[in-house]
């Protein structure tokens, strides 16, 4: 989040989270290549989808 201090989807700079592109529950990993920055609202809206 230091390298990208904004949401990848909406551009918000508030309430940022790390989002797993492929969810852990679907075989994703905690590797940096599988994580992107989303605000909590966009992350919640995305749900458990890959």
Keywords:
14% helix; flat; 1 helix; two-stranded antiparallel sheet; alpha+beta; single chain; 50 residues
Write a short abstract of this structure.
The chain has 50 residues and is α+β, with helices and mostly antiparallel strands. Helix content is 14%, strand content 20%. It has a two-stranded antiparallel ribbon.
Order of helices and strands: EEH
Strand order of the largest sheet: 1-2
Largest sheet: 2 strands, antiparallel
Low-confidence stretches: none
Report the span from N to C terminus: 21 Å
Mean pLDDT: 93
Number of strands: 2
Helix/strand class: alpha+beta
Shape: flat
What is the count of DSSP helices, taking H or I runs of 4+ residues?
A: 1
Helix content: 10-25%
Beta-strand proportion: 15-25%
Tell me the radius of gyration. 10 Å
Kindly describe this structure.
The protein has 50 residues and is of the alpha+beta class. Helices cover 14% and strands 20% of the residues. The protein has one helix and two strands, in the order E-E-H. The longest helix has 7 residues, at 40-46. 10% of the residues are buried.
């Amino acid at each position: 989040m230091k390298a990208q201090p904004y949401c990848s989807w909406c551009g918000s700079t508030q309430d940022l989270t790390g989002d797993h592109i492929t969810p852990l529950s679907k075989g994703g990993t905690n590797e940096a290549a599988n994580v992107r920055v989303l605000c909590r609202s966009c992350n919640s809206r995305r749900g458990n989808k890959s």
